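Q: what sequence does this backbone want?
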C-alpha cells in the first residue's frame, strides 16, 4: 500500500495511467475541463480487486451522455442514456454472483431487471422483468413513497424524523456512510444567535433559529470518506454573506478589486450582500438565506443554492425572488431530504 495516499496494490486490470482517488476508493481515468468538471470519456475501477465498475461519456459541462456500470464478475449492472439533462433510458440488472452494485428494488427478489419509465415520474416507476425476460405486472412504484414528504407544511424536525426512518431501513448497507446523520453535541444558545444577528445586521429566519436553538446543527454523509458529498449546517462563526466570503477567498478588501479579479460587474457582486451563507455541500456548493425574499411580517427568507462561478453569480444577481410566504428553512430541509432519498432509490448509492 502507498502510505502517502492509502492506495492499495494496483491490480493488473487497472491501467497505469489511472489515478487513485482515495475519497471514492477507486482508480479513475479521464479528463477535466478548466472548471475542474469531468468531461468526455471516464472510467473507474473499484478497489481492492480493480474491476471496471463504471464507464461514462460526459458532455462539455460534465453531464452524462451514456452510462454503463458493472458487477465485479463483469456483468452489466446498469446502463442508460441522457439527453437535455434528462434520462431517456435507464436500466438496472441483477448479478448471478455476489456484487457491490445496488439494485433499486432491493425487496423484490423475483425481479431481475428494472427499466425506468420515461418520461420519469416522482416517485419513479419501473417496468419489471424476471430472469427469463417475462414482464412482471406492468409498471409499479418503488417503496420510496413511504420516505417522501406528503405535506406542504412539513417542518425541518419532521423531515429529519422521516429521514431517520429511511436510515433505519438501510443501516446494514455498506454504503450507509454516504447517508448517515450527525447532530452537534448541544443546541445553539439564543445569546449566540443574537450576537450573530448583530454582526450580520439582519434578523435570521425564525424557522432556522427555532431549529438550531432546540436541536443544534447537523451534517449528512461522511466528511472523511466522501467529503465531496458531505452536507453540513455551518457553525455560527462561519456564517457570512457571499460577498464577504469571496473577499476572503480572493484576499481582497473592495468590490472593485473583486470585480477585477472575477471579471464581473461591481453591481453583480454587490447583490451577494443578500446571500447569507449558512450551509455547504462538498467544497463548492453553498446554501444561503436570500434577504431579497424576506417577509417583513415573518422574517422568513428563501434558501438559495450558489456555486461561486461567474455564470452562477450572474444568474443569482439577475434572479428576482418573490417575498416568501412559508418557512424557508423548513421548506429547504424537507426538499433536501426528498432529494437524498430519491438519489438512493434511483441508484445514486
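A:
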Amino acid at each position: 500500500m502507498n502510505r502517502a495516499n492509502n492506495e492499495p496494490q494496483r491490480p493488473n486490470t487497472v491501467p497505469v495511467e489511472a489515478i487513485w482517488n482515495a475519497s471514492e476508493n477507486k482508480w479513475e481515468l479521464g479528463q477535466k475541463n478548466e472548471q475542474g468538471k469531468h468531461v468526455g470519456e471516464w472510467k473507474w475501477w473499484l478497489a481492492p480487486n480493480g474491476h471496471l465498475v463504471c464507464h461514462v461519456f460526459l458532455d462539455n459541462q460534465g453531464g452524462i451522455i451514456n452510462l454503463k456500470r458493472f458487477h465485479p464478475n463483469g456483468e452489466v449492472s446498469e446502463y442508460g442514456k441522457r439527453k437535455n439533462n434528462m434520462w431517456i433510458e435507464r436500466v438496472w440488472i441483477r448479478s448471478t454472483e455476489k456484487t457491490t452494485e445496488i439494485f433499486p428494488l432491493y425487496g423484490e427478489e423475483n425481479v431481475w431487471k428494472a427499466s425506468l419509465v420515461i418520461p420519469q415520474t416522482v416517485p419513479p416507476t419501473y417496468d419489471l422483468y424476471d430472469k427469463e425476460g417475462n414482464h412482471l405486472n406492468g409498471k409499479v412504484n418503488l417503496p420510496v413513497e413511504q420516505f417522501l414528504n406528503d405535506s406542504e407544511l412539513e417542518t425541518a424536525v419532521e423531515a429529519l424524523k422521516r429521514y431517520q426512518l429511511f436510515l433505519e431501513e438501510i443501516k446494514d448497507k455498506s454504503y450507509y456512510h454516504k447517508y448517515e446523520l450527525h447532530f452537534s453535541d448541544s443546541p445553539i444558545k439564543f445569546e449566540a444567535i443574537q450576537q450573530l444577528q448583530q454582526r450580520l445586521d439582519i434578523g435570521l429566519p425564525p424557522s432556522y433559529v427555532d431549529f438550531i436553538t432546540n436541536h443544534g446543527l447537523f451534517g449528512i454523509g461522511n466528511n472523511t470518506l466522501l467529503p465531496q458529498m458531505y452536507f453540513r449546517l455551518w457553525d455560527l462563526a462561519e456564517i457570512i454573506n457571499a460577498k464577504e466570503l469571496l473577499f476572503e477567498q480572493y484576499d481582497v478588501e473592495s468590490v472593485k478589486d473583486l470585480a477585477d479579479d472575477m471579471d464581473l460587474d461591481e453591481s453583480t457582486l454587490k447583490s451577494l450582500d443578500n446571500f447569507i451563507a449558512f450551509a455547504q455541500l462538498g467544497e463548492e456548493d453553498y446554501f444561503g438565506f436570500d434577504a431579497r425574499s424576506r417577509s417583513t411580517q415573518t422574517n422568513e427568507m428563501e434558501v438559495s443554492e450558489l456555486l461561486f462561478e461567474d455564470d452562477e453569480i450572474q444568474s443569482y444577481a439577475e434572479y428576482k425572488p418573490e417575498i416568501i410566504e412559508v418557512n424557508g428553512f423548513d421548506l429547504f430541509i424537507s426538499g433536501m431530504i426528498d432529494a437524498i432519498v430519491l438519489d438512493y432509490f434511483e441508484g445514486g448509492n
